[in-house]
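Example 3.
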Amino acid sequence: MTDQPIRELGENHTVARFRALASGSLSPNVIVGPGDDAAVLSADGDRLLLLACDMMVEGVHFRLDWARPRQIGWKALAQNISDIAAMGGSPFAAVASIAAPGALPEEAAAGIAEGLVAAAARYGASLVGGDLVGSPGPVVVDVAITGWVDRDKLLLRRGAAPGDAVLVTGSLGAAGAGLAALERDLSDAGSSLLAEAFRAHHEPEPRLKEAQAIAATGLATAMMDLSDGLADDLPRLCQQSGVGACLRAGAIPIAPACSFVAQSLGLSDLRLAVSGGEDYELLLTCPPGAVDALSAAVQACGSQLTVIGEITDEEEVLLLDAEGREHPLGRGFNHFAV
Amino acid sequence: MTDQPIRELGENHTVARFRALASGSLSPNVIVGPGDDAAVLSADGDRLLLLACDMMVEGVHFRLDWARPRQIGWKALAQNISDIAAMGGSPFAAVASIAAPGALPEEAAAGIAEGLVAAAARYGASLVGGDLVGSPGPVVVDVAITGWVDRDKLLLRRGAAPGDAVLVTGSLGAAGAGLAALERDLSDAGSSLLAEAFRAHHEPEPRLKEAQAIAATGLATAMMDLSDGLADDLPRLCQQSGVGACLRAGAIPIAPACSFVAQSLGLSDLRLAVSGGEDYELLLTCPPGAVDALSAAVQACGSQLTVIGEITDEEEVLLLDAEGREHPLGRGFNHFAV
C-alpha cells in the first residue's frame, strides 16, 4: 500500500500492478493477457483473436498547434496497427473514443476522424465505431483494435534465447528527431531531412507487411514494435523472455533525418535514436543462422533488417560504445514527468 | 464545412458526421458498422464478433470526490458489458486505457483497475490489456470490449415495426436520481432509497442475463441499452428502424429511489426517469403477441418487463401525458454543455 502519486512511482510500477490485478481473473480463452503488444485470445476457428489499445493525450503525445488533426487521427490508429503487426497478425476492426472540449472546432474533430479512417483503410482495417464525449480538459484519442493471427505465425515478446541475434527493421530516431525539432523550434524550410523527421513524427508508417513477412518465415523467436524507443522497449522484451541483451552502438541504424536534426541541435544522434521513441519499427530476435533468411524477407518488402546486438543470459541490457565500454540502457521517457 | 465548435453543433451532429466518414470504407466483414450499441463483425465460426467502446471523463461522467475509484472502474467496464448485452451477446475480452495526472495517488489508480477487473469477472469477461498515460487534464477511462453473439440471436436497433410494443426492463430513474442528489448535495443517512439511488449511479448492473433471455426467445424485433436515458435513446432506436413511437407517461416504470429523490428535491420524477440516463436497463420492441412470452423470460431472471408504448409509422417520438396531451420526447443531456 502506498499513497504516493503515480508520477513518483513511474508508469512501469503502476502498470505492473495493473497487470497483476488483471492477470488474476483471466478466462481460459485468454492465451496471452496483459504485457505484450496485444492480448491473444482463442476464437472459433484456426486463427487467434488479437486485441490492443493505445491512448494519446493532447499536450503529452501531440499538440494541436504542431500536428494537423488528420495527422493526430492517423497516428492514433497507426500505432494500434503496429501493435497487431508486432504479433505477426492482420488488423481487422477498430473503435475510437475521443474526449474533446466543447470549444474544439468541428473541423478539427472531423479531421481527427478522417485520419483515423485513412489509416484504417491504408492497412486493411475498418473503423467500426467509437465514442465522442465532452471534456473540460485536453483532447484525448483512444483507439482499440482487433486483429487475427494464425496460431503458427504468432510472435510474442517472450521467446528470445541467449545467443539469439537482436535485430531492428528500418532505421531509428527520425520520429524522435521530429519531436525534438518541434520542441526546440528548429525550422529550415529547405531541408528535406527535417521534413522527413516531421513526417516520421506525425505520420508513422507501421511495418505491417514487414512483420507479416517475418512471421511467415517462422524463424523469429520474439518480436515487438518500437513505440517508446529501444531503451524502453528492449528491456521489456528481455524481461518477458527472462534474458538480457548486449547492443553495439555502432551497429544501430540511425536515420539520416535523426543525424541531421541531432547535428543541428547539438544533440547525440545515437541517444535520440535509442530513446526517441515512436519509430514503430520492429524489434525482433532470431537464432544467428536465421539472420540471412529474415533479412531477405524484409528486403523483399523494400525495407532493411539490421543486427544490432545479441541476447545474453545476464539480467542487464547493455550498450557497448565504440571504445568497448558498457553502458546500461536506461529509460527513455517517463510519461508522468509532465 | 463549418468552423463552429462541437458544443454548438451538439454531439449528435458531430457523431453523425463521424459515422458517415467511417461508413465509407468498411470491409465486407463488417455486418453492422457505427451506430448501434456495438459493431457486428464476421468471424471464423458460426458466432459473430461484437466490438464496442465507452469513455468516461472526470468532471463530466464522474467526480473523484463523489465516487470511489473502484466504482469508477466498475462503471466504465459495466457500461461496456451493457453494450454487448444489448446486442444479445456474451462479453468476452476487454481492454482499458486510462489517462491520469501524475499527481493521482497510486491507490486511486489501482482502485480504478480493481473496479474494472471486478466488473469484468462479474459478467464473465476478462480484462486482457490496456494503456496508462500521463495527462495534464482530468482522469479519463476508456474501455473497449469484444463479445460473441450467435447469428440467430443478434438484436439491433433497427428492426422495430409500426404496431410493435415498446418495452423496458426493470425501472427507470434511480441512476439519474443518484446524480441529482449528488449535484444538489442531498444527504439523508437513514434513507435506504437514497442509498439505492447512489448505488444505481455509481455501480450500475447491466442486464446481461435478461438480455440473453430476451435474445433466446427470438421474439424481440429491436433492442438497445438505456445509457443516455429514454428521451435520447428511444429516438435513436426509432431513427435506425425508420419509425416513430408513442409512449404513455403513466406506463413508465419509475424506480422508487427516483420518486423519493425527486420528491426531496422538488423535481418531476417522470422527467428524471425519462431523461436521467445511465440506468443501463434494456429498451426493446416486439409484436404485441410476443409480450407475454418475453415478460415470462425476463421474470425468470428476477426482473420485470413493462410495456410503455408502441411503435408508430410517424417520424416523431411522443410522450402522452395523463390528460392525453402529446409532448415531443426531447434530448436529455448534452455532454458538450459543460
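DSSP finds eleven helices and 13 strands in chain B. Residues 69-86 of chain B form the longest helix (18 residues).
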